[in-house]
Amino acid sequence: MTSTRKRPPFGRTLCAMITPFTGTGALDLDGARRLAERLVAEGCDGLVLNGTTGESPTTTDDEKTRLVTAVREAVGDRAALVTGVGTADTRHTVESALAAAEAGADGVLVVTPYYSRPPQEAVADHFRQVADASELPVMLYDIPGRTGTRIEPETMIRLAGHPRIVAVKDCSYDFLGTQKVLSQTELAYYSGCDEHVLALYAVGAAGCVSTIANAVPAHVAAILDAFDAGDTARAAELQLAATPLTEAMMGSGLPGTVTAKALLGRLGLPAGPVRAPLLPAGPETTDGLLARYEALTRA
What does the entry list as the binding residues for pyruvate (predicted)? Predict the structure, then answer.
């Protein structure tokens, strides 16, 4: 069975890549290159840099730009690069989007402005200003659990009319609202929640932006491969097999950044420490992550 899906704008299996740091907490560009190479070699056709998992709140504008440049050098045109530029300040977000284009990004991830709790018309205006100013296509990031503000489905539908607003990273936990937008627009939806990868793909999403893919990129890609091949039972089996690791990484009460870096570090992959105010995972948590990783990869 051959998939009839339209070609997604930023690839299909995207990893929300961590930002590696050195032992002293500096940006580790060599580690970022090596990690990006591994992710692409093992199934990711897109990378999201400088997102929440990439510790965007605690990296500087210069570090973000340097990271994009370094990863582009490493992966060339083998993967789409989307970089987070969203802030609580529209002017700053526009400036960051312009810098992303110069650094070699293929698109920008723009989160809803946080803390100020703007009403929906202000939310829409924020996104339009960014899309108007930059030549890059925009992926909206709907994650009200962190920002405090939804991008309501009606707002999404209006924004879909902008020629450069092309995609959504969906962490809304509103499956009905997501289906409403999918049914009425051409927006390419990407599941931002690892437990929803298959469910959202099955109703027409373009793919996923996965945190667990930092550790198991091939497994995440295999879920979508199986579905595209028409083997829905196998796709479901693979999705369910990832549940213990997904729960350990994303449902433990710790941010995915913390758990992903802990697991990658234990695996000898580029990671390094997290930046304050985050704290590293403890040995017991890391042992549990490793056990679940090994159970999944040895199955």
Answer: 53, 209
Per the annotation, binding residues are: 53, 209
The percentage of residues in the chain with a pLDDT greater than 90, rounded to a whole number, is 97
Q: H/E/C letters for each residue in 55-78?
A: CHHHCCHHHHHHHHHHHHHHHCCC
Which residues does residue 189 pair with via DSSP β-bridges, in sequence order? 168
Strand-strand pairing, 13-16 and 46-49: parallel
Would you call 169 a catalytic residue per the annotation? yes
**N-term to C-term CA, the chain:** 26
- Would you say 200 and 170 are in contact if contact means Cβ atoms under 8 Å apart? yes
- Residues annotated within the binding site for pyruvate are 53, 209
Q: How far is CA 252 from the centre of its chain?
A: 19
Tokens representing 205? 């999403």
**pLDDT digits 0-9 by tens, 156-174:** 999 999 999 999 999 999 9
Choosing from 169, 189, 190, 201, which is the catalytic residue? 169
Q: What is the CA radius of gyration of the chain?
A: 18
Answer whether the bond into residue 277 is a cis peptide, omega within 30°. yes
Question: Rounded distance, CA 41 to CA 181, Å?
Answer: 33
